[in-house]
Amino acid sequence: MLRPLLVLAPLAVPGAPPPDAHAVHVIRAAGFGHGVGLSQFGAYGFARRGRDYRRILNHYYRGAELTRIPPRETSVLVRRGYSAASIRGASRIGDRSARPNVTYTARPGGPGVLLFRGRNRVGSFTEPLGVSRGGAPVQLLGKADTGVSDGSYRGSLVLHRARGGLMVVNSLPLDDYVRGVVPGEMPAGWHPEALKSQAVAARSYALSSPSRSKLYDHLPDTRSQVYLGASGERPESSAAVRATADQVLTYRGRPITAFFFSTSGGRTENAENSFVDSGPRPYLVSVPDPYDRISPRHRSELRYSDRAMARRLRGRYRGRFLGVRVTERGVSPRIVRARIVGTRGSDPVDGGRLRTLLGLPDTWAHFHKVVSWGRRRRITGWFEPRGSGRVAIERRVRWRWRQAARGVATFSGDFSVRVRGGVYRARSGALTGPAVKVGR
Predict the structure, then answer these.
(1) Which pLDDT belongs to residue 269?
(2) Rounded to an integer, what distance in angstroms lies between the CA atom of residue 51 and that of residue 30?
(3) Chain-centre distance for alpha carbon 249
């Protein structure tokens, strides 16, 4: 059920601020990621408390079943756009034998690909050109698109001509692909049951995802899953893949899109609330995540000046920027929809786009604003959202903040407290305003 924000008061301020007023926008955030499916830190917390991977998966993917599938092949893009590809460790290149201790360099040319050993041309091949070593990994020299340098890859490397250069695709068994994904998505030193849950989620996600291209199924980064190849494998994560070999999550007989992410903030979200162009998915519904607090991103705070907020949201409001008004929240409560408010009108934005514009760790966010200015022996300002409460006034002494006075904010959120000269800021609970100078 979607829950609208309860307080939808206009963002009009209690009074026009003077020209020398300072404002700070404080965004209190929870979680890290899109919030749908398996929370990795939450899974780690469950595992540390004795839950096995089956119970962990049952918690995050409601109604999904573990199913064993026959082994199958998949493919992932490794590198593209380079004028050459150097390979070492191959025993077979195309239909010819190769020497594993020799470095071969492929370049586009002829009917497809020209192959060199040093400066000597070895042969000309039609594309695609397969390079393999009978079950052992083959090394691709140089940097891959994931940033892996001189990485090794199981299965075969397949070379295609693309945009005047070469594209390198890794074709391999699905479980070998998952062996290269799990340590890229979850620390290999985590609890074995958490690693097993990640292995099943990664395998399910790979199987359910449509192919990214006619030449490969997956991208090697977060647009699909982070893939490190054989050189990124770790014994602990590989053991988790073997322990769950060929297991995927299904719903009504079909593999599910097993989304996963880092940190939930305490609760996951319905798929349709985080991916507004997606319909409901019965197995991707909001669930409590009680052990997510171990994540360093469980709670966070961002602070922006008026100018910085206006710059980031430019083109999304009319007139002078005032603030962000949330109009619809999900279950967790992540932002589903909001409006960017200006003095001459507001424009709508969905939660995902707002997260991108403001660099938020998640769409679970609450917006606050503190405006302050100094006059002779007085600091004045207001808090948004409006509301009465105690205000602590802190003074900067040798670059440290010390409490100097107390006051009370009225129902409209404004305050005015008498102080001595110096640099001050207002605080309400954990919410602090900008530093302002007060005259003597």
Answers:
(1) 97
(2) 25
(3) 22
What is the H or E stretch that residue 177 is in?
Answer: helix 174-185
Rounded CA gap, 70 and 247, in Å? Answer: 9
Taking residues 159-178, report their average pLDDT: 93
Reading across the β-sheet that carries 165-173, which strands appear in turn? 73-82, 165-173, 156-162, 129-132, 92-93, 96-97
What torsion, rounded to 10 degrees, do the Cα atoms 217, 220, 221, 222 define? 30
Mean pLDDT of 16-45: 94
Instruction: Please report the DSSP string for 402-424 in residue order.
Output: EEEEEEEE-TTSEEEEE--SEEE
Residue 101 confidence class, pLDDT cut points 50, 70, 90: very high
Is there a contact between 140 and 166 (Cβ–Cβ < 8 Å)?
Answer: no
* Token digits of residue 193: 């049951």
List the chain domain ranges.
Answer: 13-31+300-319+351-440, 73-175
- Rounded alpha-carbon distances, angstroms, from residue 135 to 128, 149, 154, 260, 381: 20, 21, 7, 30, 70
For 13-31+300-319+351-440, CATH gives 2.60.40
* Token pair recorded at residue 34: 């899109």
Question: Which amino acid appears at position 422 of this protein?
Answer: G
- Percent of all residues in the chain with a pLDDT value above 90, rounded to a whole number: 84
Helix locations, 364-406, DSSP H: none
- Calpha distance 410→181 (Å, rounded): 54
Q: What pLDDT shows up at residue 16? A: 66
As a whole number of angstroms, the distance between CA 251 and CA 187 comes to: 28
pLDDT beyond 70 at 365: yes
Task: Return the DSSP state at 344.
Answer: T
Q: How many helices (H) and strands (E) does the chain have?
A: 8, 31
Q: How confident is the model at residue 81 (pLDDT cuts 50, 70, 90)?
A: confident
| Integer Cα distance of 168 and 41 in angstroms | 34
Q: Say how far apart CA 149 and CA 142 lie, in whole Å.
A: 5
Rg (CA), the chain: 28
State in Å, rounded, how far the first CA of the chain is from the last one: 55
* Distance, CA of 420 to CA of 405 (rounded, Å): 10
Confidence (pTM): 0.89
Q: Are strands 247-251 and 65-68 parallel, antiparallel or unpaired?
A: antiparallel
Tell which residue, 326, 202, 205, has the closest CA to residue 273. Answer: 326
